[in-house]
Design a protein that fits this description.
By secondary structure, this protein is an alpha/beta fold. It has a domain of 251 residues: Aspartate Aminotransferase, domain 2 (3-Layer(aba) Sandwich), CATH 3.40.640.10. Bound molecules: pyridoxal-5'-phosphate.
Amino acid sequence: MNNEILPHEEVINDTLNHFSGKFENIFHQDNYDHYRSAIHDTLDLVGTFLHRNDKPFSGIEAKTMKKMVQHIDLNQKLSSYEEVLKEVDEIYVQHATAFHLPQYVAHLNCPIVIPALAGEILVSAINSSQDTYDQSAGGTFMERKLIDWTAERLGYTTESDGVFTAGGSQSNLMGLVMMRDVFSQKNLNHNIKQDGLPPEASRFRIFISDKAHFSNSKNASIMGLGEKSIVKVPTDNEFRMDITMLQKYMKREILLGNIPIGIIATAGTTDFGNVDPLEDIANIAAQHNIWMHVDAAYGCALLLSAKYRHLLNGIEKADSVTIDYHKSFFQPISSSAFIVKNKRELRILKHHADYLNPAEMDEEEIPAQINKSIIQSTRRFDALKLWFTLRMMGQEQLAEYTDRIIDLTKDVAEMITENQEFELLTHTDLSVLVFRYLRSDIEDLNALNLHVKMKLFYSGEILVASTKVDGQFYLKFTFLNPITTTEDVHQILNTIKKHGEDFGTTN
Ligand SMILES: *Cc1c(COP(=O)(O)O)cnc(C)c1O
């Protein structure tokens, strides 16, 4: 009689067969062989990417690229990894920018370190979510430990706290939100989280240098303060915030009836790699009793360097700091953090969701990083990549890389200065050089240098960036690769010269 209730052996086997057929794509112990071979095949394509590349870019034009992608029918699935990898190679990998080559000297994209990539395998496979303890356990405490480690390097005490974010723009947004909400709470006794913006908000003013990152203006606009709330203070001749001008601009805004709520200093501007005078700015913020945020998305590299750490003196006085490990710690995207000096102030961001972090939950007993995150709920365990990096390399090796990069930049700056055919615009604290190619017979230097840049881009041999200063077009090197040598840069300058000499003869 029992036979009729219990399933037969065939039925059980049948179910299992059915399972392994239909669910072979689910990450699960029965499918480990599938996972392994898929990763293995994909790794081979990584190998191809590395070995095939001798230049940072294929030079493909956007309209060709667009056609190649457009013509693919997503409703028609492919039958093997081999086919998928072949397709992805053709429309992506072959043309992807190779940031690890010394000929890539364009934007703030660092080469990445192998320990972080090993960590990445676990991040994506185990797929913890960092919002609450019950979705990450050890991950929560490892992230907190890395935040504390970073805070210690900033010179913060155990009163500090923070959270990993998707990037510097998001960390800057957190800095601005804290600045705005803490100001309102303290000075207007107004809770923005509860009650929205106070009437005074239209007069809130935030001071940044005119070379600060554009994300700050964007952030002010999404926060309902409007871009007008951002007051851009002129920089001195080394493109650092001019302190006399800062005081002047603050006085002017107050006379106009506006309300300074904070200052954002940049430690390492995107275009020039210079650090604003942090000590002076901290003093001024303290005099006005307003928030100071430091955007150290790029300059955070200096935190580890015994040789150059002094350039960040004063950062410990800031109320909050943006760190981009994916700019300056050789980490794969995304890896960033927002750190605040006084953890009590972070509570201003806290929201309670009954299903995640109910109000009665004891924060110390059952910690939830979501309490500190303003945008992301479900969030990757990106911190694990930095964990692997520190445990394998130690901060000393990271610091060595940074020192090498800065030293290389100093050598190249000298090289450019000594060469009559080039003009170097300014000094850098970090590793950006803004310069242009000169030809005595050419008056339109903008056209000449734009020509050079486009030639380089479409040949794919070298990728440089560019920027405009006072209406003049300049080329820009950003060095982030410790492997790059002065000889590599010498070759790059020669290629620039070659294209510069062609200007006016070809097209
Ligand atoms: C890159 C950069 C940012 C933005 O960081 P993302 O990680 O790209 O969002 C902010 N500030 C500075 C100075 C930067 O260079």
